[in-house]
Write a structure and sequence with these properties.
Its cofactor is NAD(+). The chain has 402 residues and is an alpha/beta fold. The chain is built from 18 helices and eleven strands. It is 47% helix and 15% strand.
Amino acid sequence: MRQDAAQRTSLTDIHWQRFSVAYDFPVAFTREIFSADNTLLADVISRREPHKNHRCLIYVDAGIAATWPDLTRRIEAYFTAHASRMTLLTPPITVPGGEFVKANRETIDGVLEDIRHYGVDRHAYVIVIGGGAVLDALGLAAAMGHRGVRLIRLPTTVLSQNDSGVGVKNAVNFKGCKNFIGTFAPPWAVLNDFDFLCTLSRRDRLAGISEAIKVALIRDGEFFDWLEANADSLAEFDPRTEEIMIRRSAELHMQQIGRGGDPFELGSSRPLDYGHWSAHKLEALTHHGISHGEAVAIGIALDARYSVLKGLLPAGAEWRIVWLLKRLGLPVFHTQLMELGDDDRLAILAGLKEFQEHLGGELTVTLLAGLGRGHDVHEIDETTMTAAIDWLQEEANRHAAA
């Protein structure tokens, strides 16, 4: 008996290991990033070890490579101009973009092989030029190689410059489940070159504004007012207006990540994902026939109407949101919202369970308590959500008839 008591005491002897790690990385905005006299990239690469020559691998989204055929020449000329500080290990490598790269892990394996082959270590750099999907996928590869190679993101879309590019997440899909495989790994730097936006399609350029509307709705009512007042200029891609929108959206996302208290999402709440529970599911239901930004626009409208029906958001506020989305040419409804699943429930509602499973814990969905004020709830009434979907369909039909 005495021996058993001693054994129990030793088994419950607990030692706590505690430490904290500070993260910081620059988020910069510029133009002509590969102009020889623009030292931003070289300065960022050498900011901690100014007297060292730094080794770099560069990857370019295939869409960017196609629309910027002289990009390789520009990059190589830039490295030549700054050869005392950095070395390009091989010519820029083109990788597929869009959801393909997130669904096909062969690209990640290829990057890991490059890291091994070229001897890239934790003090060398992987530089990724592209949209959010490419940044996500290759960011994951960089985070896995040697358990963390320095990553520099050069976002090339509105969506990645004003939202995803400044985050700390890297992820790919798994068997149709969005962002199932991933890491939290802050980048070394995020460098936004506004010039990349000029070759985007009108559809993609507008879709990225949805994330600015989202963060304005949950964090900054004055920014939402500004978006309303400048909707026409945004729809016409006025350079100055677009830059202000991207900068303010990025700032708000950075504030939430840095000051929100849960940058690595250890809790059950995803406050920056307002409108996203349905958006992620809608992307899957349409087999990515609509883009992420378009799906988010629909999710924003849906959850705004639901917020009104539940008495959280004053009636009429949803009309302002829908008007802004429509003025920018963004959708507020898709017929796939009406699809029934095998259980005769609306298939989109399965997105609630998937949204919860992604984080674990209790279901937490951010709704609106005002324009600029998010409000978390832990249950969604399916009957009321169905009524919100019906309202969106009626609004879409009314608009089509007009």
